[in-house]
Specification:
Elements lengths: L1 H6 L7 H36 L12 E9 L9 E6 L3 E5 L6 H8 L8 E7 L2 E2 L2 H7 E4 L11 H12 L5 H15 L19 H14 L4 E5 L7 H17 L3 E5 L5 H4 L4 E6 L2 E7 L3 H7 L10 H8 L7 H12 L13 H10 L10 H18 L1 H21 L11 H17 L2 H19 L5 H30 L7 H22 L5 H17 L16 H5 L1 H14 L9 E2 L17 E2 L16 H8 L12 H29 L49 H4 L9 E14 L2 E14 L3 E6 L5 H8 L7 E8 L2 E2 L2 H7 E4 L11 H12 L5 H14 L20 H13 L5 E5 L7 H17 L3 E6 L4 H5 L3 E6 L2 E7 L3 H7 L10 H8 L7 H13 L1 H7 L9 H4 L8 H18 L1 H21 L11 H17 L2 H19 L5 H31 L6 H25 L3 H17 L15 H6 L2 H13 L8 E2 L5 E3 L5 E3 L5 E2 L14 H9 L11 H28 L6
Parallel strand pairs: 3-8, 3-9, 6-7, 7-8, 15-20, 15-21, 18-19, 19-20
Antiparallel strand pairs: 1-2, 1-4, 4-5, 9-10, 11-12, 13-14, 13-16, 16-17, 21-22, 23-26, 24-25
Helix pairs in contact: 5-6, 5-7, 14-15, 14-18, 15-16, 15-17, 15-18, 16-22, 17-19, 17-20, 18-19, 19-20, 19-22, 19-24, 22-24, 28-29, 28-30, 38-39, 38-42, 39-40, 39-42, 40-43, 40-46, 41-43, 41-44, 41-48, 42-43, 42-48, 43-44, 43-46, 43-48, 46-48
Length: 1352
């Protein structure tokens, strides 16, 4: 029926239009069929071309060989790297941070990077091309890109269906079962992947699933980037053992990078390559590495983890550069010959490799891929709430809300026609904004799609078409759900529902394609902003806010290209066309004099009332008359539907977006997704930092190596201020916790015991290491000890010098350094530490503070990076290791009695991790502090830095005591540690079910609970000493006023440097306002036609500028973690931050308002008499939305949710600003929004400033009751309004001569505007909103800071 309506006869369309419509539909169908057929043919041709003739040419011996490969990049350059990995073996690529591991792996996997790779990468003697890579290789990246809503088994099922189409159902299920068993996911095969929003697999299990997906392809070569990242040593060993076994079983070559391998993991490597400063330090048999180092004069000690030793040896951050170069030069003398590997003659090897044929896996045909991927898309659409379910609810709820807001439009009165038109426009326009949610979904799906296409799983066009097949019916479902409320609540005729449904669904389909195209941007934030920009552009040019004739070229093209205007035209026509009666009109004969004055227009009707004597609000009785009247102001409306034409434009836009999406993903995955190395040049150079070249390294040209674990007599005078506070005798500190337990409710009265009876004591000068496998309870224990709010209930005691510790005592005497670095992106390392000293040590004068900062920078190894900014997602800064050391340095400024750290060595190489632990040990001794830290995978050297060790497993204690007692204890319970192994690894192997067994772990735990050592570890509670010094080291902190002053200075500096705060908007806002000024350039003329467009320009200036405060949600959400950390550390009170940010906001927002207003007044031709008043009222409006953004940033942990909430509040504020309906027409309690949201109050005052002093041509003043001459030459009577428009046939569109008259006329339609001067009231109301929002922000921030759980 709908297709017949679209392409069949219509009472207002001619034969030619019907013919064009039928041709349009036929062309669309033919194009779709041809596209599918073409993709099928191309895929089959590619498979035939890439396949082999020899059915028995099996993959038996392949190798990847790299030679003379380097990158011409300023950082991370690789020079003359040579190596080889053969089938059945594992090559591990090791190196300290910045050694070039990632650069090399990107080169080997043909990834596009920031440099230009050159050299030779060969497989069986053949150059590794992008096409060959897709056939033979698979790559498991460091960050897992899985489908959040698919289970483990479903991931493998779809991969099998694409890679192994020849398998029948039984064989496929058997293969999946075998693979799940191999990777150890049999207990998790029905668990979904999960993401930031939905829970799913753990990070370790995600790594296993990623490896399993790569193995489904049966690749000849498997690359892995940090496969053991984020897992404990037991899991890491299991992963590497699995990879070694897989390499041998199915005869594939495995190459992987490893950050800091334990001895057990290193033992599973066949060959290893050591990189440093972009050069090779060793390549050969892993077990012969120690032997080689001995031959060049660097023999490792007995029972030393050789991997840790060599990584320390070649780390230029902790070893003199000259020493590192000596090791590199020794290897260079070998000309790249592998150590301990017998190489066949080059001729034999070359002939053998060239002769070896690598069989092309028989992947699924294009049609099979399309069927499989369509099935997956349907499953994802059904399960993923963000895909469609959330939008269904949001669209339905939003349009019900609009229906209630516009409930008065059911009355079918003249005064409600404009409101009804905006009601219908919002019911279509706002749901298109919610397509933003699918933009978020498509971005994360694109990450998975990119990996799968890169590995040759399917053609990207098949994935695209599969998603489109699912989109089409879902667009109609969304349209039905979205349209039903306005038709029911708005009393619309359901005769127009079918065509309204078609255009609603088509509009959804077009915007869905646009969101999918934007999803391929590199960052989800960029994707969201890209879509929002396109959406607002479509909203602006939809025909409701601009007349295309008035828009200059090429901007006018937006009016014709974007789909919303075409959809609105036909959609609103179908809604109005079937309405037969609106009250308030009287019939008349065209040209006759009217009783109340004036002449009857050609329309044949008129309106008169005491409130509207001019008939300015008179649209007509029938729907077609109303559409004709609306066309005077809105160019898109008229008595014709243009169904076929508009559908053609919308479909064309959607097709262009989708074809563009296919082209982009094809280019990014097939054309530009890979970068083959170029042949090497005859000469080249790689930039290597010279000794002493870094700032802070000294000026004598000698390398600086700080030994933080040793005392030195060369420390500058006064350096003790960093650790010892006021000096004097060492303070006695005893930090203890007794019988700590933690239970999490599980529903129906049940509770899960996460911790049980955990006790330990650590004294000043001691370092307690808390170790355990994943899920042992380390994080929950730390949350309990730091009084952090969690999901459960803690029990037990926490004592400081025998006194029960409170949240306030922790605030004064302890500090917590979390795993996430809470740094300010635009501040340098020196500025971070200097700011901390200014607040924690206010008694220091400038010279002493400078000296203390210098010493702390040197001791933490940050002197060379002291002027480097911390960095963030917008720009690069400190490395991961440097960020960890800086966070520790900031914490040390407080001079705490107790220091608690969560994973202080996470992400660091062995040398950097050992240096951090030595520093902690030194700090514990010098500052008389008790130090506790959790460690995930400690190396032998890191483990040796602990004085005491607490081993956890399944929430219970397996050991607690002196580090040196750990081996004797386990020997005493008949579970001796492995000889010569890292004790930490050996213990973790014993208490992990993955490497041991559940029975063995339970035995270890029970033995400890039964032993006397358990009671000894708990010990007697220390007596309360009342040590005021130990409990009050932070007493000298700066006063609240002084703290506020220093925070204000920092926030002012951030405001001037951070683009997310104000500088970005100072650039973007004037540009956008100028852009809108070009769109509304005709409104510069003060005439009757341009009155509403001048209003719309003002509306966009105010509304869009306030919308951009959404960047504050992102920036403040990012910063709030640092703020909460600093407040909890006692650096300053929360009120200081709230007050200082407010004081910074005031001048910055006034400056922003000034910059925007200059552009708007100059371009819009607004009278400068009201400029000053406009600036301050506009700044107050900006201040209100800025305060709202701050509140949302602290309310939501995830910034995406905060951004969505901000958009909802901003959209609601636009809706309730008084320009799209009258507040008195809204039912309570919804009418409260009209008064509670800020934009309404901002519009009133700025509208007065713009219109009140302006005269508008096209209207003539007259005395009420006097005789006037109308456009047709007929005489009439001047109405009580005191003006008339001689050039217009109707009163509609005649606003007035003076600003007062224009404001009074607009007040009948736009309630927030009037000729009364209420600017002071508007300013006061907005200021009151700012105060309320600031109080909410302060309360929420304080609640976040003070949220804690105290054990009882």
């Amino acid at each position: 029926h709908t297709l017949a309506r679209l392409c069949g006869p219509h009472e207002r369309q001619g034969t030619n239009l019907r013919a064009r419509a039928r041709v349009c539909v036929c062309v669309c169908v033919c194009v779709t069929v041809c596209l599918v057929g073409s993709f099928q043919a191309l895929w089959d041709r590619r498979a035939a071309r890439d396949g082999t003739d020899d059915g028995d040419a099996r993959f038996r011996q392949s190798s990847i060989h790299g030679r003379r490969s380097w990158l011409a990049a300023p950082e991370g350059a690789a020079q003359d790297v040579k190596g080889e990995v053969t089938a059945g073996h594992v090559l591990a690529i090791l190196g300290p941070s910045g050694a070039g591991k990632t650069t090399l792996l990107n080169t080997l996997t043909l990834q596009s990077g920031g440099g230009s790779p050159s050299g030779f990468v060969r497989v069986n003697g053949e150059p590794l091309t992008t096409k060959l890579y897709n056939v033979l290789c698979a790559y498991v990246e460091q960050f897992d890109t899985l489908w959040a809503s698919l289970t483990v088994r479903e991931h493998l099922f779809y991969a099998m269906a694409c890679f192994k189409p020849a398998l029948d159902a039984a064989a496929r299920d058997a293969a999946i079962d075998q693979l799940i068993q191999r990777v150890g996911l049999q207990d998790f095969q029905d668990v979904r992947g999960g993401n930031e929003i939905t829970r799913g697999l753990s990070s370790g299990n995600k790594r296993r699933l990623s490896v399993a997906l790569a193995l489904v392809k049966s690749p000849a070569i498997l690359f892995l980037d940090e496969p053991t990242s984020g897992v404990d040593s037991a899991s890491a060993m299991r992963m590497m053992t699995f990879l070694k076994n897989i390499a041998a079983e199915i005869n594939i070559a495995v190459a992987c990078t490893i950050h800091q391998p334990p001895a057990s993991v290193f033992a599973d490597f066949d060959n290893t390559m050591i990189l440093s400063m972009g050069r090779v330090a060793y390549f050969g048999k892993a077990h012969l590495l120690g032997e080689y180092l001995g031959t060049i004069g660097y023999p490792p000690g007995a029972e030393t983890n050789v991997a840790e030793y060599v990584l320390d040896l070649v780390n230029k951050d902790f070893t003199p550069v000259a020493g590192v170069r000596a090791v590199l030069d020794k290897w260079a003398e070998r000309n790249g010959a592998a150590y301990g590997v017998e190489e066949p003659s080059s001729t034999t090897a070359g002939e053998q490799r060239s002769a070896t044929r690598l069989e092309q896996p028989k992947t699924a045909s294009f049609a099979t891929q399309l069927a499989v991927l369509t099935n997956r898309s349907v499953l994802v659409a059904a399960r993923e709430p963000l895909a469609y379910l959330l939008r269904l609810a949001a669209n339905f709820g939003t349009n019900i809300f609009f229906g209630i807001i516009y409930i008065k439009t059911r009355d079918m009165e003249q005064g409600q026609v404009a409101s009804r038109t905006y009601f219908l426009m919002f019911c279509m326009g706002i749901p298109m904004q919610f397509v933003l949610i699918s933009n978020f979904v498509y971005h994360y799906q694109w990450l998975s799609l990119k990996r799968e296409v890169k590995d040759g799983m399917y053609n990207p066009a098949a994935a695209a078409i599969a998603s489109w097949i699912v989109q089409v019916p879902m667009m109609f479902v969304l349209a039905v759900v979205s349209l039903t409320p306005p038709f029911l609540l708005g009393a619309l005729s359901f005769e127009g529902f079918p065509m309204a449904l078609v255009f609603y669904a088509l509009c959804f389909w077009a915007f869905e394609g646009m969101a999918q195209a934007f999803a391929v941007l590199p960052n989800v934030i960029f994707a969201l902003f890209g879509y929002l920009s396109a959406y607002f552009t479509a909203f602006l040019f939809c025909g409701m806010f601009v007349d295309p004739v008035d828009v200059v070229w090429p901007l006018r093209a937006f009016c014709y290209v974007l789909p919303l205007g075409w959809a609105l035209q036909s959609y609103i026509y179908s809604c109005y066309h079937y309405i037969s009666h609106h009250s308030g009109t009287l019939p008349c004969m065209p040209g006759e004099a009217l009783p109340e004055g004036g002449v009857c227009s050609d329309q044949g009707f008129y309106c008169w009332s005491e409130s509207d004597p001019t008939g300015a609000v008179c649209f007509g009785e029938t729907g077609d008359q109303i559409l004709d009247s609306l066309s005077v102001q809105f160019a898109i409306f008229g008595p014709d539907a243009h169904y076929a034409r508009n559908a053609g434009f919308i479909v064309a836009f959607g097709l262009v977006c989708r074809l563009g999406y296919v082209g982009i993903i094809h280019a990014l995955t097939q054309l530009y997704g890979g970068q083959e190395p170029a042949p090497p040049a005859e000469s080249y150079s790689v930039m290597i930092e010279e000794e002493g070249a870094e700032s802070g390294a000294g000026g004598d040209g000698q390398a600086v190596a700080i030994k933080v674990g040793e005392e030195t007599d060369a420390a500058p005078e006064g350096s003790k201020v960093v650790w010892a506070g006021s000096g004097g005798e060492p303070q006695q500190v005893t930090f203890a916790f007794r019988d700590i337990g933690y239970s999490i409710p599980q529903g129906k009265g049940a509770a899960s015991q996460v911790l049980q009876h955990v006790s330990a004591t650590v004294k000043n000068g001691e370092l307690l290491g808390i170790v355990g496998s994943s899920g042992a309870g380390k994080t929950i224990l730390l949350d309990t000890l730091t009084f952090s709010k969690g999901p459960g209930t803690p029990t037990g005691k926490i004592l400081l010098n025998g006194t029960p510790m409170t949240r306030r005592m922790f605030h004064d005497s302890a500090i917590y350094v979390p795993r996430e670095d809470n740094l300010w992106p635009t501040l340098t390392a020196r500025e971070h530490i200097d700011f901390a000293f200014s607040l924690f040590k206010p008694q220091l004068d400038a010279q002493s503070r400078e000296r203390a900062v210098d010493q702390l920078l040197a001791v933490t190894g940050m002197a060379s990076a002291q002027d480097t900014k911390a960095g963030g997602f917008l720009f690069k800064g400190l490395s991961g290791g440097q960020r960890r050391r800086l966070a520790l340095a900031v914490a040390l400024v407080k001079d705490p009695s107790v220091i608690i750290l969560d994973e202080p060595t996470s992400g660091l190489d062995s040398a950097a991790a050992a240096a951090v632990m030595k520093l902690l040990s030194t700090i514990a001794t010098r500052s008389s502090a008790a130090v506790l830290c959790t460690i995930h995978q400690p190396s032998a050297e890191v483990f040796s830095g602990f004085h005491k060790v607490l081993v956890l497993s399944e929430g219970r204690t397996a050991f607690c005591g002196e580090r040196t007692a750990i081996a004797p204890y386990f020997e005493s319970i008949a579970m001796p540690l492995s000889k010569g192994a890292n004790p930490a690894e050996a213990v973790l192997d014993l208490v992990s079910k993955d490497t041991s067994s559940a029975e063995a772990v339970a035995k270890v735990l029970d033995k400890w609970a039964e032993s006397g050592a358990s009671a000894a570890a708990a010990g007697e509670e220390p007596s309360a000493t009342g040590d005021a010094v130990a409990l009050g080291r932070a007493a000298a902190a700066r006063s609240a006023f002084g703290a506020t002053l220093h925070v204000f200075r920092r926030q002012l500096e951030l405001a001037l440097n951070d683009p997310l705060q104000y500088t970005g908007r100072l650039v973007v806002c004037p540009f956008l306002i100028s852009f809108f000024g070009l769109v509304y350039v005709a409104s510069h003329e003060a005439n009757q036609k341009q009155v509403p467009f001048r209003l719309f320009y003002m509306w966009w200036v105010i509304a869009l500028s306030n919308c951009l405060s959404i960047t504050t949600v992102i920036g403040t959400n990012r910063d709030i973690r640092s703020v909460v950390y600093e407040i909890r550390a006692g650096m300053y009170p929360s009120a200081s931050y709230v007050l200082s940010t407010s004081l910074v906001q005031i001048p910055m927002l006034v400056i922003l308002s000034f910059a925007i207003s200059v552009c708007a007044f100059a371009i819009g031709g607004w009278p400068f008499e009201g400029y000053i008043s406009f600036v301050f009222q506009f700044a107050t409006s900006l201040f209100a939305f800025e305060s709202l953004a701050q509140l949302l940033a602290v309310l939501f942990v995830n910034p995406v949710f905060g951004m969505l909430c901000h958009l909802i509040m901003w959209s609601s504020s636009i809706l309730f600003c008084g320009l799209v309906f009258r507040g008195e027409d809204v039912v309570w309690p919804f009418r409260a929004f009209y008064y509670a949201l800020p934009l309404k109050w901002g519009m009133n005052g700025v509208g007065y400033d713009i219109f009140i002093s302006q005269d508008f041509s096209g209207a003539v003043l007259c005395e009420p009751g006097s005789i006037i001459e109308t456009a047709g030459g007929a005489e009439s009577v001047c109405t009580d309004a005191g003006f008339y428009c001689p050039e217009t046939a109707t009163s509609f569109g005649c606003w007035g001569r003076t600003g007062t008259q224009v404001l009074d006329t607009m007040h009948m339609t736009y309630e927030s505007l009037n000729s009364k001067d209420e600017r002071l009231l508007d300013f006061a109301v907005q200021l009151a909103m700012v105060v309320a929002l600031k109080l909410g922000f302060a309360f929420t921030l304080q609640r976040t800071v003070s949220a804690s759980d105290t054990p009882h």
